[in-house]
Amino acid sequence: MTHPQTTEHIDAYAELARIDFSRTDVTTALARVADVARRGIPGADDVSVLLVGSEGVHTAAFTGPPSMIVDEWQYHRGHGPCLTAAAASLTVSVPDIAEDGRWPDWADHAVDAGMHSSVSVGLPLRASVSGALNLYARTPHAFDEDAVMLAETFAGYAAVALADAYLYDGPTDVVHPRTRSPLTFARFMEMPAAPTARWV
User: Where is the GAF domain (predicted)?
Assistant: First the structure.
């Protein structure tokens, strides 16, 4: 008998595989990846996709207001787990946001927004664009290792969407921010990565 969670994973993969990135604009494709990730990754209550281009950083797709709020706070302060994941193309896990000491001011803001754990996966993109897939949960320790591995798979699909955007639309069409932030690409690329390995 197939485990229900395994079935959910298979369904999520199948739904991602049905997205024809060559026929879908990047904004719609990333929104679909975020939505499928929220529904398919155990523990995820809200999901966003962050992009950093030559004109700044913005949230390109999100499934609910909390992820947008928590993301944008990082843009204006210039630090946080999502930006760290994007800058170094690694996976940043925050099992208990309230107890995490790496970005204490961000943690307070995230908890106020109702989020208590997160995982951010850097997207392997072109040199001129970086990004991250961000998962948020309302409970601490919401993401086990299987959930993180699944998130990394979803991040790969998000990267495919962006690669196809470059191929079919050209690089100038990739970044369409809702609002520009003061964090420029040059400043972002100069940010030091938090002390970590693959798992931060």
Answer: 25-172
How many beta carbons lie within 10 A of that of residue 87, not counting itself? 20
List, edge to edge, every strand of the sheet that includes 130-137: 56-62, 46-53, 130-137, 117-122, 91-94
Q: What is the pTM of this model?
A: 0.79
User: What CA–CA distances, in Å, run from 120 to 6, 68, 86?
Assistant: 22, 14, 8
Extents of the domains making up the chain: 4-189
> Considering the chain, what is the average pLDDT of its residues?
78
Q: Kindly state the average pLDDT of the residues 10-27.
A: 71
- Burial class from Cβ neighbours inside 10 Å (0-12, 13-18, 19+) for residue 178 reads exposed
Is 3.30.450.40 the CATH classification of the domain at 4-189? yes
